[in-house]
Amino acid sequence: MANQNDKRRKPPITILRSDHDALTRLAGAIADSNPAVSEELLFELDRARIVDAAHPPEGMVRMGSTLRYTTDTGEDRNVTLVYPAEADIEFGRVSVLTPIGVALIGLSQGQSIDWTARDGRIHRLTVESVGPAVARKEMRQAS
């Protein structure tokens, strides 16, 4: 669960206005069924710097971004951050409604963040690279 002290320990994040609006609606929609994830996502959205889609910062993790991250446990993964309907771990598509998905949104290349796994353990991940965002239509066609 997030609290005010977490704001000081977490890196600054940037989110596109369109992602912010869609994710705010999504967090509200799951508030009753999954309050912990909803709260964590809303916390991240609340602390984010919101930018216009016309000028997104280079190397920023946004919805549809394909990125490579490493963890403190030695894991090195390539994933695409997606909405729940497009999630498919076999194809490396991670839902934004998972603990790691919430941790990734808004980070930039080179940033690190601590995140709590479903088993309650805290891990640290670092975004190594971020590719261009893939459109939702393109993701469905790749399946």
Can you give a write-up of this model?
By secondary structure, this protein is α/β, with parallel strands linked by helices. The chain is 31% helix and 28% strand. It is built from five helices and seven strands. A five-stranded mixed beta sheet has the order 5-4-3-7-6. Strands 1-2 form a two-stranded parallel sheet. Helix 2 packs antiparallel against helix 3 (35-47). The longest helix is centred in the first third of the chain and has 13 residues, at 17-29. The chain is globular, with a radius of gyration of 14 Å. The protein starts with a helix and ends with a helix.
Reading the helices and strands in chain order gives: HEHHEEEEHEEH
Low-confidence stretches: 1-8, 139-143
Q: Strand order across the biggest sheet?
A: 5-4-3-7-6
What kind of oligomer do you see? single chain
Q: Name the average pLDDT.
A: 88
> How many H/I helical runs?
5
Distance between the termini: 34 Å
How many whole angstroms does the radius of gyration measure?
14 Å
Largest sheet: 5 strands, mixed
**Structural class designation:** alpha/beta
Q: State the helical fraction.
A: 25-40%
Number of strands: 7
Q: What fraction of residues sit in β-strands?
A: 25-35%
Shape call = globular
